Amino acid sequence: MARKETAADAANAGRLKQIALTYKMTRKADKKIGLVLAAVGIGTFGVFLAIGFLIDHPWYLGIFGLLVALLGTAIVFGRRAERAAFGQMEGQPGAAAAVLDNIGRGWTTTPAVAMNRSQDIVHRAVGKAGIVLIAEGNPNRVKSLLAAEKKKMNRIVADVPVHDLIVGTGEGQVELKKLRTTMLKLPRVLTGPQVTATNDRLRAMGDLMSNMPLPKGPMPKGMKLPKGGPRGR
Predict the structure, then answer these.
(1) What's the pLDDT tens digit per position in 126-178?
(2) Disulfide check for 81: which of 26, 67, 136, 177 has CB 3.0–4.6 Å away?
(3) CA-CA distance, 84 to 80, in Å (whole number)?
(4) What distance in Å separates the CA atoms of residue 158 and residue 155, rounded to the nearest whole number?
(5) How far apart are CA 124 and CA 112, in angstroms?
(6) Against a cut of 0.70, is the pTM above it?
């Protein structure tokens, strides 16, 4: 029994330490994080407590409001921490793959379906919005990679809409921290079975990087493709 309690205490201490570390890292990129969390927590609790006094049930609404305030604060903290982390990764080759890894259910993502020697990369995601090609790298160079991939998609799955996004901070580009939101806002035009059928056809086609080991997340700076390696299509 004592061992279980000790293990539970150690786990709780580890979580608290991780939360504190995440907060410190987030605060470096988001100076207003403390004020925002305080506003969300206190504001939510205050609204519920005020309603409790109005209906003569301050205790019930106060306790419920406290739980809702904690939940709301946790959600806001998680989202802002994620945006801060992605903001720090902005501009690193392969960073978009880390975002796609956390896009959520309903999407099938394939990193680095096209790449050139300059480390310009195109990733692919398939969902109810259709096929989304996400490019990162030099805007002028990735356009040719995207064009080649879209042409290939039209040959294999001509009946499925293909969207293309370029990750970056320039005009017409999508910031890394807004990539997930942008993709989730795309109109849904496919049914579940259609998404499955599209994925099956793409798997049968194969990918440029299917036989090349590629680490998840940002690629190490200075990494170069081996001679004779894949080029952008």
Answers:
(1) 999 999 999 988 888 888 889 988 888 888 888 899 999 998 888 888 888 78
(2) 26
(3) 6
(4) 6
(5) 8
(6) no
